[in-house]
């Protein structure tokens, strides 16, 4: 359920006649689906304002269908998962022994340690977010002037 912890419903006559009856059945109440009949004088606009708390585990699209006298309209929304911060930086260089730290850059046959961080700045879960770091595609110049893979292996 998209709204498992409940919702509130406020009924109002927005404009027109104050003779409108918004709930002929007396069935509109909080935490229940709206399923009622109404009486609306010509030129009158009524409104049901529904405020719902979204399920904490929701990550997919929410589609809400409304049927009035056999005609259906819909409203849909999805979580905004576009607010995030990410970075990649080198944390250290190691000599060929894999233990001795180096300063000022790498040495051929040595190691480079990278750190990748991603922070979710949303109020929603980020689900199935693609992350790609193609180390195999990184090229560099070799001693003989040719170009080739920068890394032989990585863990």
What features would you describe in this structure?
A hairpin with a 2-residue loop joins β3 (62-68) and β4. Strands 6-5-7 form a three-stranded antiparallel sheet, with no helix packed on it. It folds into two domains: 7-77, no CATH class; 84-149, no CATH class. It has strands spanning 7-15, 45-52, 62-68, 71-77, 84-94, 101-102, 111-120, 139-141, 147-149. It is mainly β and 155 residues long. The chain has no helices and nine strands. The chain is 0% helix and 39% strand.
Write the layout of secondary structure elements.
Blueprint: E1 7-15, E2 45-52, E3 62-68, E4 71-77, E5 84-94, E6 101-102, E7 111-120, E8 139-141, E9 147-149
Antiparallel strand pairs: 1-2, 3-4, 5-6, 5-7, 8-9
């Amino acid at each position: 359920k998209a709204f498992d912890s409940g919702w509130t419903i406020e009924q109002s006559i927005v404009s027109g006649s104050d003779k409108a009856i918004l709930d002929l059945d007396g069935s509109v109440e909080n935490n229940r689906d709206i399923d009622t009949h109404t009486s609306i004088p010509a030129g009158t606009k009524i409104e049901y304002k529904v405020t719902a708390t979204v399920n904490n585990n929701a990550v997919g699209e929410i589609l809400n269908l409304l049927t009035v006298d056999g005609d259906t309209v819909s409203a849909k929304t999805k979580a905004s998962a576009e607010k995030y911060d990410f970075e990649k930086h080198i944390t250290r260089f190691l000599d060929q022994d894999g233990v001795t730290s180096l300063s000022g850059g790498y040495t051929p046959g040595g190691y480079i340690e990278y750190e990748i961080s991603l922070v979710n700045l949303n109020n929603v879960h980020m689900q199935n977010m693609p992350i790609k770091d193609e180390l195999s595609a990184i090229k560099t110049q070799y001693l003989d002037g040719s170009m080739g893979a920068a890394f032989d292996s990585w863990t």
